[in-house]
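hiii so um. not sure if this is the right channel but i have a protein structure encoded as tokens and i wanna go backwards to a sequence. like what aa goes where. can anyone help
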């Protein structure tokens, strides 16, 4: 049995996946866009924050629906896009959306879930002009979606 060596290359200053050396996939947005992310899974929340920060966004993290509402109220003028897990305790995503809707009409909205959206949430998302991403999704898709929502909000 022969052993094969697998080369491993480490670059200093690594900033995320690259298509070619020096071409980061995550550099999609200027640092002026702010995203509020709410997810009750701590590892996923940390990962999403890291993805957005590496993508050039300012990321605010909330561990549940109540924290998301509180953070939204504190930073309403800064937040461009809201990224919410559909199953977010203690209130649920519908109550979070109800609490923030109308406060900032240009707010972009992304709902995420491993399951399909219920018809009621689909209708609510449609009314808000938001986007649904089914987990798992690629970081590049998430960043591009949020960037498009943020750009549309800035144009209004």
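sure thing!! here u go:
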């Amino acid at each position: 049995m022969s052993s094969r060596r697998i080369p491993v290359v480490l670059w200093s200053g690594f900033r995320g996946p690259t298509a070619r050396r020096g071409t980061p996939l995550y550099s999609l947005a200027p640092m002026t866009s702010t995203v509020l992310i709410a997810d009750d899974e701590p590892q996923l929340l940390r990962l999403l924050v890291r993805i957005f920060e590496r993508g050039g966004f300012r990321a605010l993290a909330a561990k549940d629906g109540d924290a998301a509402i509180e953070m939204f109220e504190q930073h309403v003028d800064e937040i461009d896009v809201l990224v919410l897990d559909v199953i977010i305790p203690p209130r649920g995503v519908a109550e979070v959306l109800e609490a923030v809707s109308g406060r900032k009409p240009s707010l972009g909205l992304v709902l995420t879930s491993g399951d399909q959206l219920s018809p009621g949430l689909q209708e609510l998302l449609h009314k808000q002009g938001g986007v649904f991403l089914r987990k798992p999704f690629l970081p590049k898709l998430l960043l591009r979606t949020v960037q498009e929502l943020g750009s549309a909000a800035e144009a209004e």
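oh and Residues 29-155 form a domain with the Rossmann fold fold (CATH 3.40.50.2300).
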